Amino acid sequence: MTEVILALDVGTRDAAVSIAEKTAPYLDGIKIGYPLVLAAGLGIADELSSGGLPLIADFKVADIPNTSRLIAEEVFSHGFSGIICHGFVGRDSVLACVDTAHDHGGECYVVTEMSHPGAVDFFHGGIAERIAALVCETGADGIIAPATRPERTQLLRTLIGTRKILSPGVGAQGGDPSAIAGIVDGIIVGRAIYESEDPAGAAEQYAQFKSPSRN
Fold first, then answer.
1. Which of 26, 82, 140, 154 has the highest Cβ tally under 10 A?
2. Active site residue ranges
3. Do β-strands 186-189 and 142-144 pair in parallel, antiparallel, or remain unpaired?
């Protein structure tokens, strides 16, 4: 099933809690990155997790194995169910995140290709494919692949099989949910929901793209 995940990149605790409460009925998860954690502290995850939705830590971890492990330990000790790391740092660093996630009953997703235009400067033309192979070798749970380039995400699907794909770039970046929903396991939507005058209504609109099965 294709899920809807809110990228909650707001700058205050009150805004985060308010938007999460309003949109929760239409969501399957919430992704939290540095903007909110730096503004409100890592403890915001403890508060948001009480709502019952899975939380994904979008820290795009890219460090040596020991530091990556320490970051992942902090993430899962605060109620997150998943973590996102980069793959370009190599097998040992990815494994540090994967193993820590699995030790805590959580999941690890590896960035293969990002959704913004500049991503093709490096995460393209063979690099993303190599990272996808690394995902399979390390036992990571899935990948991050762009909704803004569905043809690339479709290609990466053929390389990772049934592992999950979470796809950012829907909404403000121009990704078309109808073009990507059948390929991926989760569409990630941020500004199009949390900057809306009616976040609940916007979330409800994206919920219509939930798919019972992938192509």
1. 140
2. 60
3. unpaired
